[in-house]
Design goal:
The chain is built from 13 helices and five strands. It is of the alpha+beta class. A five-stranded antiparallel β-sheet has the order 1-5-4-3-2. Helix 8 (205-222) runs antiparallel to helix 9 (226-238), helix 10 (247-264) packs antiparallel against helix 12 (275-290) and helix 12 (275-290) runs antiparallel to helix 13 (293-302). The longest helix has 18 residues, at 205-222. It starts with 14 loop residues before the first helix and ends with a helix. 30% of the residues are buried.
């Protein structure tokens, strides 16, 4: 990891690509074991447990973005209490887990959660210990669920520490006099002086996913902005299957568009040395888990 160069990651279209192609979640795609303590025999060897954070941070840096931590980890996915206590004593673990956000120079934002799910000692006679880390791209709603207790505690603390104005006889009397005066005058503000400012409504993850998918489909079908369209399709697909109307459709259709880009848009697929393999993997997932007819047909054509 000492030789990790952010420039080597700048051609990745989305943070999910870094997770997939750098195998940050292991062969099963769920979590991967990293050495966090090599034992006294190899005490000078660098721990591996910071690798997921280093890759995600470097990708953010490659996009000229700012990488910052949003939440620390409670390690609540690690079932064994003793393991949680042990992991909490290692900076090589604590410094690389939690929720992080990247704000790219182009305005795009994404969040990633890196959480330990288990811990164990090596099966041999060494003192090496492993931690299994799960690295996933999350949206704001998922972050709220994953770190709900922590967010509630932060909000409660902020409320409790908010300074309260001290009431005095002088300002109490002044307030009472003002209320009495306002009641007598019953002054009404002219309608022309009252301005109503509409607050912008934040776009939900589902809306953003659908917008990206529609834009990608339109541009790919028209033959314009092919690389931009492929990047938009990848972004939509990276959101995963969200809850809500049409969310499943947006996810699956975006995946088909990504596969189409990997097999028929050279300017995009050249960034992936295993473009065809990746396309087949996406299509196989959609065909098997979502019974997607379009994915099945595309798979058959690729055989």
């Amino acid at each position: 990891m000492q030789g990790l160069n952010p420039n080597s990651l700048k051609n990745y279209a989305a943070p999910q690509d870094v997770i997939d192609q750098k195998n940050l979640n292991g062969a099963n795609g769920q979590a991967r074991e990293y050495v966090y303590d090599w034992g006294p025999q190899k005490k000078d060897v660098a721990a591996e447990s910071l690798i997921p954070k280093q890759y995600m941070s470097s990708y953010c840096q490659a996009k000229n973005g700012k990488f910052s931590q949003l939440n620390t980890s409670s390690m609540n996915q690690v079932k064994n209490a003793w393991s949680r206590k042990l992991l909490a004593t290692y900076s090589s673990v604590k410094q690389g887990i939690g929720a992080y956000q990247c704000t790219q120079a182009d305005g795009q934002r994404w969040m990633v959660s890196i959480e330990p799910v288990s811990e164990r000692k090596a099966n041999d006679k060494s003192e090496t210990r492993y931690v299994s880390l799960q690295t996933i791209i999350i949206n704001p709603d998922e972050r709220k669920k994953l770190y709900a207790k922590q967010n509630e505690a932060t909000d409660k603390k902020a409320t409790e520490t908010k300074p309260k104005a001290k009431a005095t006889k002088a300002n109490t009397k002044e307030t009472e006099n003002k209320k009495e005066l306002d009641t007598k005058k019953e002054v009404k503000m002219p309608e022309q002086d009252v301005k109503t400012v509409a607050k912008p409504v934040a776009e939900t993850s589902q809306q953003l996913q659908m917008r990206l998918y529609v834009s990608a489909r339109r541009d790919l079908n028209s033959g314009k902005n092919q690389v931009v369209a492929c990047n938009n399709a990848q972004r939509a697909y990276s959101y995963g299957k969200l809850n809500g109307a049409n969310a499943n459709n947006a996810y699956a259709e975006s995946g088909v568009l990504v596969a189409r880009c990997l097999t028929s848009v050279p300017a995009y697929s050249k960034s992936y040395p295993n473009a065809n393999t990746r396309a087949k993997s996406i299509l196989q997932n959609l065909a098997t888990n979502y019974n997607h007819a379009g994915a099945k047909n595309m798979l058959n054509r690729m055989k």
